[in-house]
Amino acid sequence: MTHRHEFATSGGGMLVGGVPVERLAQRVGSTPFFAYDRTLLSNRIALLRAELPADLELSYAVKSNPMPALVQHLSGIVDSLDVASGAEMKLALDTPIAPGEISFAGPAKSIAELTQAVAAGVIIELESVTEADRVTRIGAELGIRPHVAIRVNPDFEVKGSGMRMGGGAQQFGVDAEDVPALIRQLELADVDLTGFHVFAGSQNLHTEIILEAQAKTVDLLLSLAREMSSPPVYLNLGGGLGIPYYANEEPLDLHAVGQNLEMLLRERIRPVLPHARVVLELGRYIVGECGVYVTRVVDRKVSRGKTFLVVDGGMHHQMAASGNFGQVIRRNYPIAVADRIDSDDAERVQVVGCLCTPLDILGNGVELPRADVGDLIVLFQAGAYGLTASPTAFLSHPMPLEVLV
Ligand SMILES: *Cc1c(COP(=O)(O)O)cnc(C)c1O
Questions:
Q1: In angstroms, rounded to a whole number, what is the distance separating the alpha carbons of residues 151 and 173?
Q2: Contact 316/353 with Cβ under 8 angstroms?
Q3: Per-residue pLDDT tens digits for 360-373
Q4: Where do the domains of the chain lie?
């Protein structure tokens, strides 16, 4: 069973950015490493542009992969960037994207981060009433009218997300029922309330649920828009589009998502808000399938009938593949031997990482063509929430390199 992927192959081996993985390893100079394919990134954006309505803005959520070269590349082909820390904001401000096209979400923004955001002119997505007070005060101190949007914790839940971040009680956003009072408060303050943001969850592969969530989000935001004395200019509908990780998962029906958004814009949003920026904010869906984690076999051993491939990488770099990033049940991420990508002969092996813990499993009983010491193993779906979502300090191994090819 070979994983469905978009990387080019040549002579049975896999290429990233047109370069055979072994040649890439020589060029990088060490394993393990992450490699991201620039052409696949551009192709993914082109696919989104083809399927999504022309007047829908595409924002890249930097936290899914903040590698500077990758963010620079994407900044040329998306409309806006979403950041979740001061460091991500700096990265975004280093790109040609205008500060007004950068949104800053996330709980616990520090006074220093908020001050930088106000000074830069990015849109601060308010996560609470008290954060609104802090931003108002900072604006007064700096003599700048801060640009803000209210992140709304919806009064509905989006089922089927890998991680739920909206509905019920949440540390994220202002409860929908409390938003009208906050709108009145902000309209009396010296701030520029641009509009609203909803982000209800990540990694959703259920097309029907996404269509319904988008419709409910639009209804909620339009009802809140009626509470404003002048119409909002910014509606961020969130995203949460998932990618398939496991053998039993199917890709989303992006065409249906695009058609639904087209209908929502035409029938509901544009008649009342003809000029507002309407934004879809995506991380994983843009980068997740465009990157791989490459690690070399250091040892091959048999223990009581099971064959173990021990590799020089592990969960300290790619925690999600070990099943320890919010997953309830550990299942295998797609995996391959780099230079025998299409091979059908297979043996069942345990691929384990270099950490001294039984949690460090990259492939549990996976079928791979025979691999020996020195061979390169590739883990797919490593473009999002890989390196920066992993406990890199655990066991004090060196940091892996990242390349954009
Ligand atoms: C994490 C996050 C995203 C990106 O989510 P994906 O599932 O990677 O698309 C977008 N917006 C906000 C506010 C986030 O916190």
A1: 5
A2: yes
A3: 999 999 999 999 99
A4: 9-36+288-404, 66-282
CA of 161 to the centre of ligand 1 (A): 12
CB-ligand 1 contact for 84 (6 Å cutoff): yes
Please tell me if the CB atom of residue 363 comes closer than 6 angstroms to any atom of ligand 1.
no
How far does residue 298's CA lie from ligand 1's centre (Å)? 36
Which residue's C-alpha comes closest to atom 12 of ligand 1? 199
Instruction: Give the model confidence (pLDDT) of 184-242 as tens digits.
Output: 999 999 999 999 999 988 899 999 999 999 999 999 999 999 999 999 999 999 999 99
pLDDT tens digits, residue range 130-146? 999 999 999 999 999 99
User: Which residue from 215, 309, 290 is spatially nearest to 257, judged by alpha carbons?
Assistant: 215
The neighbour count for residue 188, using CB atoms within 10 Å, is: 9
Determine the distance separating the centroid of ligand 1 and the alpha carbon of 283, expressed in angstroms. 6
285 in contact with ligand 1, CB cutoff 6 A: yes
d(Cα 162, Cα 166) in Å, to the nearest integer? 12
What architecture (CATH level 2) is domain 9-36+288-404? Beta Barrel (2.40)
Distances in whole angstroms, Cα of residue 255 to Cα of each of 165, 258, 294: 25, 5, 32
| Per-residue confidence band for 387, with pLDDT thresholds at 50, 70 and 90 | very high
Residue located nearest, by CA, to atom 3 of ligand 1: 61
CA–CA distance, 256 with 324 (Å, rounded to integer) = 32
- Using an 8 Å Cβ cutoff, are 284 and 384 in contact? yes
Cα-atom radius of gyration of the chain, to the nearest Å?
22
pLDDT digits (tens, 9 = 90+) for 12-41: 999 999 999 999 999 999 999 999 999 999
Q: Which of 85, 196, 281 maximizes ligand 1 atoms within 8 Å of its Cβ, making it the mutation to test the pocket?
A: 281
Strand, coil or helix: 162: strand
Ligand 1 centroid–CA 369 distance in Å is 36
* Alpha carbon nearest to ligand 1 atom 4, residue: 283
Q: Six-digit token pair at 148?
A: 């803000």
Q: Which amino acid type is present at position 377?
A: I
CATH fold of the domain at 66-282: TIM Barrel (3.20.20)
Residue 239 beta carbon below 6 angstroms from any ligand 1 atom:
yes
What six digits make up the tokens of 401? 């390199």
